[in-house]
Amino acid sequence: MISQESEPSEPSQNKPSLAVLLALLKPFYFQYRYRLLFGFLALLAVDFLQLTIPLYLKQTVDILKNGTATSRELLRIGGFLLLTAAGIMALRFTWRVLIIGFSRRMEAHLRARLFAHVLAMDKSFFDQHPPGDLMAHASNDLSAVQMAVGMGMVAAADALVISGAALVLMLYISPFLTLMAVLPLPLLGLSAWFLSDRLHTRFDQVQHSFGLITEFARNSMVAIRLIKSYTREQQQARAFGELGENYVAANLKVAVVQGLLFPVAILVGNLGMLLILYYGGKLVIKEAITLGDFVAFVHYLYMLIWPMMAVGWVTNIAQRGFTSLARIHRLLAARSRLENSLPAVGANPCVRPEHPLQYINGQAQGPAPTVPYRKKGVGGEYYKEFSARFRSDPVISLRALNFSYPHHHKAGASSLTGISLDLRPGILGIAGRTGSGKSTVCRLLTRQYPVSEGMLFFANQDVNSLAPALIREQISYVSQNPVLFSSTIAENISLAVPDASQEEIEAVAKLAGLHADIINMENGYQTRVGERGLRLSGGQKQRLAIARALLADRPVLIIDDALSALDVETEQQVFAGIRARVTGKIVLIVSHRLKLLSGTDQVLLLDQGKAVALEHHEHLLLHNDFYQAMAEKQQGRGR
Ligand SMILES: Nc1ncnc2c1ncn2[C@@H]1O[C@H](COP(=O)(O)OP(=O)(O)OP(=O)(O)O)[C@@H](O)[C@H]1O
Asked: Are residue 320 and residue 439 in the same domain, yes or no?
């Protein structure tokens, strides 16, 4: 089956404390304190009005029993009841708008925060958290939190107030009867306490299972052409069905716990009612309480049963909410290993924070990366100064560069070992066997993974002393699989320069050999490329990505095997276009093609993560066995 590139993160055994989770929500409660205050006042008023209804009933029953009832008196009581009902209606509407509105706003804030946080994370975070997993957090988990802080909070407050007030009024009518009514209550408390912990663990499993399904579905849609070409539809459907069954099984485990909570709550309530009917009836017969008291008492007991049942429901919603909040907290607590953050307006993103992160068992620890790098009193000047300096004299130095991927399948395996070289303006080809580390070099230059101190320098400054965003702004990067947004061709080309003119866009499209293709399309530059560039050929996508990089016009251009889908003639045409545009820039071209490498100034040859040669193409052809073998194979293919 076409499965996950990486498993969604497992439900963690370390639960963050309640205080930590509540601290996450505290700012929202503070921001909306007045809205909440009025909402809860309205809720209290509804509860108060509801509690008066049994008093009207008591009054009615007693005057009917005494024979003192008159039509006028009955109409008066009826009028009050009607007014009370109207008040309840208006106030209920008010609290719903205020409190449920708060929970929706909080959900939107939390979602935006999660999104911004995820955007600021580095590549190793995404290696661990596939998109399906992240989507599950952004949908299911946030909904569960919204439900808990919305209806959950309301139900809890409502239950507390109603049950408290009903108890007081019941005590007022008859302390003995009240004792009878609450006798079965501890049974409910015990079962809620016993079952709620199980609910937490099981609900965590449900969310994990949902993450697996989402990720599988996403992967299948992305790889739909592959699935069809290998006629794997049935296997995929079967595998999806299995994941669905696991999801159902996980949900059923939750249902077992829930299924126990609700009946226990109802049983406890009805046991209380049984005792009241028996002992209350006897008290009325003995005339210790009036019939009206008895009717009012039964009504209050009904009011007490709802909160008792709500205990189960609220426990469930609160457990789901806290489990989901804990999952969201785990994501928010994850740190970018590059100490990166989205630079705030006016902040200087050049200087490292005062408390750098430490690495413990490969996990970054330390303060959350929400504060961008600052240098007191400098503002954005340093940023501009570095960019200007690097643009006028671009130089990148690799010094005995070693690197291992944080989640490499072979622990401790090095992907790059001891690479030393200076990159200056000119075109450097990078060649080597598959898996030799070519793309890894590109990824490190573009700051996708952390590099140890003293190994990589931009303009003689250690990259660790510079914000990753600042480094990335110096580089146009065309990856092996160009990514396109599902917008127009023009928008895709001008991604890095949104205000580029049509002439500028056309100029780079011509250099990338794409202009002729575009003008033959139905809507020219306004043609929509479809999901991930679905409506373009592989070669068109690659040339579009090259055009985008040329328009960005940055001091460094990295093309990671991104001309592979072109025929040799088109490749040469595109290469000529690149050459025309890159004077004074550092250009790296990863390729297996000899024809392309022959046009570069020098070729870096990698083997098992080591630099084995840095020579001109002609020299390598004469003196390097691997290069000669590569040339022979390609010429053989050409014949
Ligand atoms: N995200 C990753 N996590 C763990 N290991 C990785 C990751 N990406 C690459 N590797 C490993 O690092 C090594 C170098 O990979 P790299 O992608 O740099 O090779 P390459 O020379 O670009 O290969 P190709 O020509 O096939 O693209 C390989 O052993 C690969 O398995």
From this structure: no
CA 148 to the chain's CA centroid: 19
Task: Kindly give the distance from the C-alpha atom of residue 438 to the centroid of ligand 1, in angstroms, as a whole number.
Answer: 8
User: How many domains, in total, are found in the chain?
Assistant: 2
ipTM for the assembly:
0.96
Q: How far apart are CA 327 and CA 462, in angstroms?
A: 36
- Residue 3 forms part of a structural domain: no
CA of 448 to the centre of ligand 1 (A): 13
Residue nearest to atom 11 of ligand 1 (CA): 415
Task: Check whether residue 308 and residue 411 sit in a common domain.
Answer: no
Dist CA 516 CA 509 (whole Å): 9
Task: Select from 6, 127, 438 the residue to mutate for testing ligand 1; criterion: most ligand atoms less than 8 Å from CB.
Answer: 438
pLDDT surpasses 80 at 534: no
> Does the pLDDT value for residue 340 go beyond 50?
no
CA-proximal residue: ligand 1, atom 19 (nearest): 435
Ligand 1 midpoint to CA 441 (Å):
10
Instruction: Please tell me whether residues 318 and 397 are part of one structural domain.
Output: no
**Does the CB atom of residue 405 touch ligand 1 within 6 A?**
yes
289 shares its domain with 402: no
CA of 301 to the centre of ligand 1 (A): 69
Two structure tokens written together for 439: 């793309």
The DSSP letter of residue 202 is: H
Segment 11-32 shows an average pLDDT of 76
Residue 206, in any domain of the structure: yes
Q: Which protein residue has the closest C-alpha to ligand 1 atom 18?
A: 437
Tokens of residue 361, six digits: 């068992």
Domain membership of residue 29 as a residue range: 18-333
pLDDT tops 60 at residue 281: yes
Q: Quick check: is 86 in a domain?
A: yes
CATH number, domain of 614, equals: 3.40.50.300
Task: Output the pLDDT for position 561.
Answer: 87
5 CB within 6 A, ligand 1:
no
Confidence band for 197, pLDDT divided at 50, 70 and 90: low
Amino acid 482: pLDDT: 83
Residue 443 Cβ contacting ligand 1 at under 6 Å: no
pLDDT tens figures, 42-73: 999 998 998 898 888 888 988 888 888 888 88
Q: What is the DSSP string of 330-385?
A: HHHH---TT---PPPTT--TTS--SS--EEETTEEESS-TTSPP--TTTTTHHHHH
CA 440 – ligand 1 centroid, Å: 6
Residue 195 forms part of a structural domain? yes
Q: Which of 333, 366, 382 is the last residue of a domain?
A: 333
Tokens of 105: 């706003």
Burial 280-299 (b: 16+ CB within 10 A, else e): beebbeeeebbebbbbbbbb
Instruction: Please give the distance, rounded to the nearest whole angstrom, from the Cα atom of residue 533 to the centre of ligand 1.
Output: 25
User: Same domain, yes or no, for 541 and 467?
Assistant: yes
Average pLDDT over residues 218-241: 83
Q: Which pLDDT score is estimated for 630?
A: 82
Q: Looking at the structure, do residues 316 and 398 belong to the same domain, yes or no?
A: no
Is the same domain home to 314 and 405?
Answer: no
Mean pLDDT confidence for 431-450:
90
Tell which residue, 192, 121, 139, 137, has the closest CA to residue 11. Answer: 137
Task: Identify the CATH number of the domain in which residue 270 sits.
Answer: 1.20.1560.10
Q: How confident is the model at residue 248 (pLDDT cuts 50, 70, 90)?
A: very high
